[in-house]
Specification:
Shape: globular
Number of helices: 19
CATH class of the domain at 102-120 and 240-444: Alpha Beta
Catalytic activity: O-phospho-L-homoserine + H2O = L-threonine + phosphate
EC number: 4.2.3.1
Protein name: Threonine synthase
Largest sheet: 6 strands, mixed
Strand content: 5-15%
Radius of gyration: 21 Å
Cofactor: pyridoxal 5'-phosphate
Low-confidence stretches: none
Bound molecules: pyridoxal-5'-phosphate
CATH architecture of the domain at 102-120 and 240-444: 3-Layer(aba) Sandwich
Mean pLDDT: 94
Helix content: 40-55%
Organism: Thauera linaloolentis (strain DSM 12138 / JCM 21573 / CCUG 41526 / CIP 105981 / IAM 15112 / NBRC 102519 / 47Lol)
Strand order of the largest sheet: 3-4-14-9-10-13
Number of strands: 15
Distance between the termini: 34 Å
Structural class: alpha/beta
Length: about 475
């Protein structure tokens, strides 16, 4: 499989393959990588895949996108990644070996697709764990090393650290805002004692940490000399890994491949639902993709109006579903590429506006007139909606859900009339409630339960360097440790 850029120029004279783009970020022209075409899944394949384990299914799907790793090696990587030991936080009563079981709220009608059973209790683990094993494999094959630099307000940083800990050839330098994460989130990250994991708490806000990452990445000489890399949400391998659980969820929710499902996806950077879009383009029978945002509704606005208006940092609201607090959606360009008929000139023109801080408007375009063909429906949720939804789900079904999943359930209920009768709706469970305990207490007046293996982690010794928000100091810190 060859890869292309959404803006037309993938860089090499020959189009790159999977391993060429695995360790990089943006394409050289500033676009995002996508496969040259989406592999089509035949009915015979769907029939054969229905009974596969998660690891087997991951191999079957990923081998369509990854053709430059020998199949036996890719199979071993999938087998090592998707185990019941790694994804060990499955809800009581659900099958541990399923990795991503469906937990029905209403049997056959409304269910949670459990994606948060990995080590850091959020769906980021689904892709990040695979990325850790792919990085180690490809770096060893090439005799290279990488120093991952990132900034996190919580979920991504911990998922990256748990995926990369102890991996040969990989070091992680993760910046976080000093004192602003919850005690649980701090303990999750800072208690890691692995030699290749470095936590840096910056005395500032998340944006200060993010600015340091940008400053270091824009220092091209430093970046090249010190092999600085990233694992952010535009990484193609992360999107590819996420395609798998749409197929797995489909098989769990249906009895035959003549049926359809709908997915509702709590969204921020459009990475998760982009994988659902690709699964649908491959031929998975998906009736609707329901996109849920919180108060930061830039994506809901687009799907309702055709206007994409990235917000200024000052317009971005701090909410109780913080992993969806985004001002622009970094993966959205991948969908728009498909929407405009895969015309890179059109995408480049639209993103010239976005990169200049302006909106674009497709409302009167022939492309937006066909938006329904892509199956998208959208809605937004607020703090009051989250509290009410967490309460209602707990009272009606005895199930505790996190704030992001609550945004999903709220929008799934609201848009139910647009899903064809008899089609089950799966809401993607993107985190477990214990990660956002304050809001659970606000909604229910009680603490969420905590998995036994995470009991008391706040008391473990922590390893973190507190630093002023100063890019030069961070560079010195990195150089001294590699
Ligand atoms: C990252 C994240 C999201 C948003 O996912 P995107 O791929 O950025 O759309 C939603 N919920 C949780 C808990 C997350 O960590």
């Amino acid at each position: 499989m060859k890869y292309i850029s959404t803006r037309g120029h993938a860089g090499q004279s020959a189009k790159p393959e999977f391993c060429d783009i695995l360790l990089g970020g943006l394409a050289p022209d500033g676009g995002l990588y996508l496969p040259e075409s989406y592999p089509q899944v035949t009915r015979a394949e769907l029939d054969a895949w229905r009974g596969l384990s998660y690891a087997e299914l991951a191999f079957a799907i990923l081998s369509k996108f990854i053709t430059d790793i020998p199949p036996a090696d890719l199979k071993a990587i999938c087998d090592k990644t998707y185990t019941a030991e790694v994804y060990r936080h499955v809800r009581e009563g659900d099958e541990a070996g399923d990795i991503t079981p469906v937990h029905w709220l209403e049997q056959g009608r409304l269910g949670l697709l459990e994606l948060s059973n990995g080590p850091t209790l959020a769906f980021k683990d689904m892709a990040m764990q695979l990325l850790g094993n792919l990085f180690e494999y490809v770096l060893a094959r090439r005799g290279e090393t990488i120093n991952i630099l990132g900034a996190t307000s919580g979920d991504t940083g911990s998922a990256a650290e748990y995926a990369m800990r102890g991996k040969h050839g990989v070091r992680v330098f993760m910046l976080s805002p000093h004192g602003l994460m919850s005690p649980f989130q701090r303990a999750q990250m800072y208690s890691l004692q692995d030699d290749n994991i470095f936590n840096i708490a910056v005395t500032g806000m998340f944006d200060d940490a993010q600015d340091i990452v940008k400053a270091v990445s824009n220092d091209h000489a430093f970046k090249a000399a010190n092999k600085i890399g990233a694992v952010n949400s535009i990484n193609w391998a992360r999107v590819a890994a996420q395609i798998v659980y749409y197929f797995k969820g489909y098989f769990a929710a249906t009895k035959s491949n003549d049926e359809q499902v709908a997915f509702c996806v709590p969204s921020g950077n459009f990475g998760n639902i982009c994988a659902g879009h690709i699964a649908r383009q491959m031929g998975l029978p998906v009736a609707k993709l329901i996109l849920a945002t919180n108060e930061n509704d830039v994506l809901d606005e687009f799907f309702r109006s055709g206007v994409y208006r990235p917000r200024k940092a000052a317009e971005t609201r701090v909410t109780s579903s913080p992993s969806m607090d985004i001002s622009k959606a970094s993966n959205f360009e991948r969908f728009v590429f498909d929407l405009v008929g895969r015309d890179p000139r059109k995408v480049a023109a639209l993103w010239a506006e976005v990169d200049a801080g302006r909106a674009f408007d497709l409302s009167t375009s022939s492309e937006f007139a066909r938006i329904a063909d892509f199956g998208f429906v959208s809605g937004a949720s607020s703090h009051a909606d989250r509290l009410a939804t967490i309460r209602k789900v707990f009272e009606q079904y005895g199930v505790m859900i996190d704030t992001h999943t609550a945004d999903g359930v709220k929008v799934a209920w609201e848009r139910a009339a647009e899903v064809p009768a008899g089609v089950p709706v799966l809401v993607l469970e993107t985190a477990l409630p214990v990660k956002f305990a304050d809001t659970i207490v606000e909604a229910l007046g009680r603490e969420p339960g905590r998995p036994a293996d995470l009991e008391g982690i706040e008391k473990l010794p922590q390893r973190v360097e507190v630093m002023a928000p100063d890019a030069e100091a961070v560079k010195r810190f990195i150089v001294e440790r590699i």
